[in-house]
């Protein structure tokens, strides 16, 4: 019994000895913390005493605020370093997206978007921006809207399998190998150093691409028919020569090559229906980067250029009749005819054709017919051109002239124009499947366009064949009845371009 007690005391003694270093460390840590707190409190108290003598309104809360601000600055610096080193930008900090679950038919830039519906996170600084992009459904309702840090221009939709099927020169391999997910590219307004890649269904930003050194973007782009490459109009900021940048959609839109545009101020470019040719509208204008001032209006040299998209070789170049006819906007008919919108930079009294067409091999442009040659109706400015290849119709818009006009490409005659103040964006209204459905329901075939404007209107311009439905065969009545205008207003200002995403 005595021996067991001794053993127990010995074990307790060993335990006491082994715990002494931990107790000493804990005691030392507590004393150090107390000393630090006491010393900090003393320094703050002394500092506050002398500070109070010079600043009567000073309070102790100022120190808490200062520490909090410094902590947030450290956090932001760390996050920035982490993002730069991991190459994983936090797009949620730059863009706010709100959406509802409906399919998107069109996408448009927005120059003025209401702040009260751009998202619930009111602390996000980007909500102060009026600029954005919206997805629009078949009923012309907003599906999603995404804020942008600057004003945008062109909207470029990656081709889908449905878009490719039935087109000339499209092989089964190109359809089979087409990317499974569709993107929509949003170009900054000319001149800009950025473009963005969004998810078509949700409007979420997935990539933000910055121009390489000594380059800026000129507001437009187009995809190859298989959706794998993006071609972008660019400017050499040193020589002011036009360039075409090539970006790999499968590799995060990394720039992989560059071609010469064979002109100054390339604006819109489109893919030819042959799938192998880039068609470029060289506006011919040198633009000062910061002010957007046009520097060479007297000596400008616009042109329409055809390039081999695989090699960059110049295939053809066509010069307009007047050197101040800036070739700006394009649309491609399925038969290979290029539709051209002109912005004339000369004196206001000069009357020049503003809507032209061109086919490979033709020496000159061919203007469409304007009644009494009164091109002044468009105030020397065409903002968008959109073509319906199935019905041989062309829609052009002019925000300065305040109207949208529709041409019959079979006769090259103007069907009519309708008053739409500040209209700019134009896109095809529906596919052939939609036309067949409406024809069965109404007894007449309908086709047409949708036009957006700066007053928040999305206007459908339906072309109804009044002869097929038994209307009086009088040209005046026919012209009035053939264009059916219907506007739907939103509390936002739509920007220059409107692109179709899903037709029918």
Provide structural commentary.
By secondary structure, the protein is α+β, with helices and mostly antiparallel strands. The chain has helices spanning 2-54, 61-86, 161-164, 172-176, 432-442, 475-482, and strands at 97-99, 106-112, 132-136, 142-147, 152-157, 183-188, 194-199, 205-210, 215-223, 229-236, 242-248, 254-260, 266-271, 277-282, 303-308, 314-318, 325-332, 338-344, 355-358, 366-367, 384-388, 393-398, 403-408, 413-419, 423-428, 446-453, 457-464, 483-489, 493-500. A hairpin with a 3-residue loop joins strand 26 (446-453) and strand 27. The longest helix has 53 residues, at 2-54. The model is unreliable at 1-18, 76-86, 116-128, 163-170, 437-443, 468-472 and 474-481 (pLDDT under 50).
- For the largest beta sheet, what order do the strands appear in spatially? 1-4-3-2-29
Outline: elongated
Residues in helices, as a percent range: 10-25%
Beta-strand content estimate: 35-45%
Number of strands: 29
Distance between the amino and carboxyl termini:
98 Å
Mean pLDDT value: 79
Derived from helix and strand composition plus strand pairing, the structural class reads alpha+beta
Estimated radius of gyration: 32 Å
- List low-pLDDT spans: 1-18, 76-86, 116-128, 163-170, 437-443, 468-472, 474-481
Please count the helical segments: 6
Could you give a short account of the major beta sheet? 5 strands, antiparallel
